[in-house]
Amino acid sequence: MLDKVRNWLEVRIGLDDIVKTQLTENRVPKNINVFYTLGVVALVGYVIQVISGIFLLIYYIPHPEHAFRSVQDIMSRVPYGWLFRQMHVVGSNLMIAAVFLHMITVFLMGNYKRPRELTWVGGGLMLLVTLIFGLSGYLLPWTQLSYWATTVVTSMPTAFPLVGDFIAQVLRGGDHVTGTTLSRFFALHIAILPPIFLSLLALHVFLIKRIGISATPFGFSDEERRPLTEYIKKTHPDGYPFYPYLFQKEVMMVMFYIAVMFFAISFMPTLFLPEEANTPADPLMTPAQIRPEWYFLGPYEMLKLVPNKFLGISIQIILVGIFLLWPFFDTQKEKNILKRPLLRGVFIFLMALWIVLMFLGRRS
Known about the structure:
Layout: H1 2-13, H2 15-24, E1 27-28, H3 38-59, H4 67-76, H5 81-108, H6 117-139, H7 144-155, H8 164-172, H9 179-211, E2 240-241, H10 242-267, H11 294-305, H12 309-324, H13 326-329, H14 341-363
Antiparallel strand pairs: 1-2
Helix pairs in contact: 3-5, 3-10, 4-5, 5-6, 5-10, 6-9, 11-12, 11-14
């Protein structure tokens, strides 16, 4: 039976040719490492989010009078509902962590340099879309935690003169976070962001396939220092075959990702669902502590430390712009960050600053 199916596909789509050109004869650099698998890990994380999200969508009611109750029913009454909810909540945090790590490792290996500037920009935009996924999904359970965190986030644009109030009104659908805000965030989360993310993903994969995989600069000479005057796809004729060499690494990292997810679900079920996440939203009672998710703690704490709100948000927008366009600012030919002490020092300083701000935000 299996052979019949295989032959049926072979005569129609050339299955053997696909396996040969994409797996066994597709060569990757000999010094490729597990950090090259983080993009695939993030992609698997997104697939898990889609599957668990579709399940939650069947039972979730996007209305302020029913949203909290429907989520509680998913956790307590729907068969295996708690499992899919936990997979969605834990998975969202792990996916953001995977995308962060992917961008950091690409930066450290200098793989954003020409001719891969657009690949970097696409990856950076996907990171921003992933963060908006987290922000929009955060409000949907309609809890005290999500309601007041969204109130703080949607008030940030008001720091900008002239257009600030208008942007806040568009986000909220009024002066305050209400059922209209819930509807808008729900539409953003399930209908607007997915096609944007998939479009960026398709562009990202196209660029990787078209340009080719770059070798790590550590310990090897950089073959891409040639003048960029014509299109040449990066190939590795002396490298290892994609299957099984890199494929095995990808499978191993995906299994590790899934193992971490189920470890957190089994032994730390309240890690991302604290007590406030099980209290219904009350617009008349401000909680003692309003704290965003861990990936927004750094920017949140920076806004608290900078005395002028407009200045604080402006600094963050400028930093995001530099991050996205960094390949066009960095004109040095050297890819190896170990040979660039200034860039290495700035990177370590920014990472340390981010960790300190997260720690302060967690304690405040």
